[in-house]
Amino acid sequence: MESKTSERKQLLSKIATGNGHGEDSPYFDGWKAYDKDPFHPTNNPYGVIQMGLAENQLCFDLIKDWVLNNPKASICTIEGVDEFKEIAIFQDYHGLPEFRQAIANFMGKVRGNKVKFDPDRIVMSGGATGAHEMIAFCLADPGEAFLVPVPYYPGFDRDLRWRTGVQVVPVHCDSSNDFKITRTALEDAYERAKEANIKVKGLLITNPSNPLGTIIDRETLKGLLSFINEKSIHLVCDEIYAATVFSQPGFVSISEVLEEDPECNRGLIHVVYSLSKDMGFPGFRVGIVYSYNDAVVSCARKMSSFGLVSSQTQHLVASMLSDDQFVDKFIAESKKRLAARYKVFTQGLEEVKIGCLNSNAGLFFWMDLRHLLKEPTDAEEMALWRIIIKEVKLNVSPGSSFHCPEPGWFRVCFANMDNETMEIALQRIRSFVVQAKKPKVPAKEKCWHGNLRLSFKASRRLEDAIMAPHSMSPHSPIPQSPL
């Protein structure tokens, strides 16, 4: 049997037989646990609640109203069917002109109209995943590397490395200064790569940060521009959460800082964007590479053939984003609802002495459970995480899956559920923490989960709740969880 397995592997590529995708990460294991036992208010009220999905579902009522009021925007309606043929036939992979113009205008609007974007530099891709891989292919050869501050989004290990052969060199950041990027940390990472004979081709940052939910201030961004210019390396800025900044200080785009620095080599600056987070459209797969480098734009546009956005999606998105009144209302209301949801969660956790990193952006917060670890090790973090998954029935993501150097931090997503589910999730966390602080009792006598169920049953107002139908996570094609 073993020889047959080995023979089959020899017939396939290294990508097919390797583990470069990184699906064995706890981040993806949490998805599998949810897929196996998904919460439903009536069909499975004690199932796992999905808090590992950074999805913005708080403003779908606004989207629904716009779609109902603009039936012509979809070519699959009576009102829009006359445009079906023109949209359905082949389209240039540059993208529909009205789509690129609408995206350029929207990018400027969510950045406070402090900078304008050229539609001719808009290159589309199949979501931010495809956009990151595209930019990695354009900027680096196999074996070369990007510096990436930690903690960072687990998908970067897949997006940047899996098919490109590019490496990731972590830039050490820690809680002593709220995980801010320092020049010292950048220099240390650059020197480590140099000593290992790894050529650094760029620095990748996320602003606002995933998983921290924080923004990078103007002075730090200026320092990053100075650093990459001195080293003659690229700066890739993932700004996919730009419109999720819900309180002060406001978001500052690298494009805005670039306009203030005439000495900077503009050809080194590239922005990754999408509509997955700001608009809540991950299923539309609208990813964007915006580069100030003409050669990169040209190459990326050729590569976009492998991951185009469907012309029907382009047509609908262009129509929606061209409605300035709707866009203004959506952005304002989304920020308002994100702020309210964040406040409910973080204040609720404060009541049971759970701290979170002070943040003001994104669809998640960075929860501090270091005080619940017996000792500060990754093993103890994983033990705590398994309890949260198996017993508390919440899919939150452990810091180690984000390469966080300090065990005990967890990313908690809060915008992908309705208010009733939010209340249940918050109650589960609070009940668990209260019980965890009590003197230890034999396992069969532990009652926090029972109390939780009673509390849940007593306060439930879910009979009329409408939950999104469950579907398999796109990140975890293998349905079985090692948990």
What portion of residues is helical? 40-55%
Q: What's the count of strands? A: 13
**Which radius of gyration do the C-alpha atoms yield?**
23 Å
Q: Quaternary status of these chains?
A: single chain
Taken in chain order, the helices and strands follow as: HHHEHHHEHEHEHEHEHEEHHHEEHEEEHH
The major β-sheet equals: 7 strands, mixed
Which percent range describes the beta-strand content? 5-15%
Quote the average pLDDT: 86
Question: For the largest beta sheet, what order do the strands appear in spatially?
Answer: 2-8-7-6-5-3-4
The tally of helices reads 17
Unreliable residue runs: 444-483
Based on Cα principal axes, name the global outline.
Answer: globular
**What is the structural class?**
alpha/beta
Distance between the termini: 26 Å
Description:
The chain has 483 residues and is of the alpha/beta class. Helix content is 41%, strand content 12%. It is built from 17 helices and 13 strands. The chain has helices at 2-10, 14-17, 26-36, 60-69, 84-88, 97-110, 127-139, 156-162, 183-195, 218-231, 254-259, 294-303, 311-321, 324-350, 378-392, 419-436, 448-459, and strands at residues 49-50, 122-126, 145-149, 167-171, 200-206, 234-238, 269-274, 286-291, 355-356, 364-368, 394-395, 397-398, 409-413. The strands form three sheets. Strands 2-8-7-6-5-3-4 form a seven-stranded mixed β-sheet, with helices on both faces. Helix 7 packs across helix 12 and helix 16 packs antiparallel against helix 17. The model is unreliable at 444-483 (pLDDT under 50). InterPro entries: Aminotransferase_I/II_large, Ethylene_sulfur-biosynth, NHTrfase_class1_PyrdxlP-BS, PyrdxlP-dep_Trfase, PyrdxlP-dep_Trfase_major, PyrdxlP-dep_Trfase_small. It comes from Dillenia turbinata. It catalyses: S-adenosyl-L-methionine = 1-aminocyclopropane-1-carboxylate + S-methyl-5'-thioadenosine + H(+). One of its GO terms (biological process) is fruit ripening. It is an enzyme of class 4 (lyase).
